[in-house]
Design goal:
Elements lengths: L4 E2 L6 E2 L35 H25 L5 H19 L3 H6 L1 E5 L7 H17 L3 H4 L10 H6 L1 E5 L10
Antiparallel strand pairs: 1-2, 3-4
């Protein structure tokens, strides 16, 4: 079954045999073959770039280290390994279950899959564990790739087929 076509101007559904959009009159182009499209992406969505994503990462680091200082101050009688374990669990669960950190939430960005839906646990774990390892292994080139990629995807996003978008962004179905 073929994916439906959508007008690139007004977003109306278009039959595969139609040459013009019935709503706005825009000429319909045949979609490129899948092999000619290396990254289909989500047309019409404003992807979040390198600097905003770095800002979210910095906010996360600040929040995490404030949490560390508070936990150490409060639990000075508790073993340091127990405090570290609790912090790692909190950070890991929040990051991998939701793929939505506090820094991302503060900046109004989120990670979505290629259909525009929130990322599930397994895809989030793939992105955060394996994908980010791949992105960082060669001098962090996988992260810098975000600045040059048309869909603003790092290597970790490509591994997990995810995109980082504004939270209020709704993808246009054309090109999906």
């Amino acid at each position: 079954m073929e994916d439906p076509l959508y007008c690139t101007v007004c977003g109306a559904s278009i039959g595969t045999a139609e040459r013009y959009c019935a709503r706005c009159g825009n000429a319909v182009k045949a979609p490129p073959a899948a092999k000619d499209t290396p990254s289909r992406g989500m047309a019409g969505v404003g992807y979040v770039g390198f600097w905003t994503r770095l800002g979210a990462q910095i906010i996360d680091a600040i929040i995490y280290w404030v949490l560390v200082v508070v936990m150490v101050a409060i639990g000075s009688s508790a073993p340091l390994i127990l405090i570290a374990f609790i912090l790692v669990i909190i950070y890991g669960v929040y990051r991998h279950l939701k793929c939505q950190t506090l820094g991302r939430r503060v900046l109004g960005i989120m990670v979505v899959d290629d259909s525009g839906k929130a990322v599930g646990f397994w895809r989030g774990a793939l992105r955060e564990i394996i994908g980010k390892f791949v992105s960082g292994i060669l001098l962090y080139l996988g992260y810098l790739w975000i600045a040059f990629d048309p869909n603003k995807q790092g290597w970790h996003d490509k591994v997990a087929r995810t995109y980082v978008v504004r939270q209020n962004a709704t993808p246009s179905r054309s090109g999906i």
